[in-house]
Amino acid sequence: MITADDFRHIALDDVQSTNLECLERARAGDPGYLWITANRQLGGRARRGRNWVSEPGNLYASLLLIDPAPPADLASLPLAVAVAVHGAISRTLPPGAIRPTIKWPNDILVGGAKISGILLESETLENGQRAVVIGCGINVAHAPEHVQYPTTTLRAAGSPVSPEELFAHLCQSMARQLQEWDGGKGIGAVRQAWLDHAQGIGQRITVHLPDRAISGQFRDIDRAGCLVMVDDERRVQTIAAGDVFFE
Description:
By secondary structure, the chain is α+β, with helices and mostly antiparallel strands. The chain folds into 2 domains: 4-196, Bira Bifunctional Protein, Domain 2 (BirA Bifunctional Protein, domain 2, 2-Layer Sandwich); 204-246, SH3 type barrels (Roll). It contains 4 helices and 12 strands, in the order E-H-E-E-H-E-E-E-E-H-H-E-E-E-E-E. The protein has helices at 18-27, 77-92, 163-181, 187-196; strands at 8-15, 34-41, 59-66, 101-103, 107-110, 113-124, 130-138, 204-208, 213-221, 227-231, 236-239, 243-246. The N and C termini lie far apart (42 Å).
């Protein structure tokens, strides 16, 4: 059984990126189950190589796992991570606050605005093991401006939580979801939890891909975490990666 006590934690001040710190330790032989947090990231990253604003006052945390699942089952890990981050954020919001939702694939929204981003990276090490890093950035006090999607903070949502308190919630929530996911064997329950908190199921969406945009109705996610939609030509599209915009 996985509990928060199974994790080690290193707290740093300024770093280029907590994900990079985890990868460097994996290359040096770290056995995993290691959280790294930072006061500030000087080179924080988001999906598709985008930079991410990383001012002090927010939570920047990355978890290193070594061989957490067979390669074929790793595709479903982002679903478990999104449910874990959603759970941690939910526990910090006051009664009566707008409840968070999950935007595919793994952004957390409050009132339709992004409050958290998640970036998973992996690398095959020299010994043949696979290092998987789960990077979580949560807007506690600051939200980036001039980005393509509305953003918000826990402060704006009425939460007085500190980054340290939020990290404690995240550790607990991540341990529960990794136990539930169980190396991919528990994906059925994890997928249902994701759907229970999903934003936009049944609604019209546009998915931006590197070479085009597809519009249609958001129908489902499959067991690998791919988005399933019916496009405007009534064709079923299964999408592994893209940026979703709601209409």
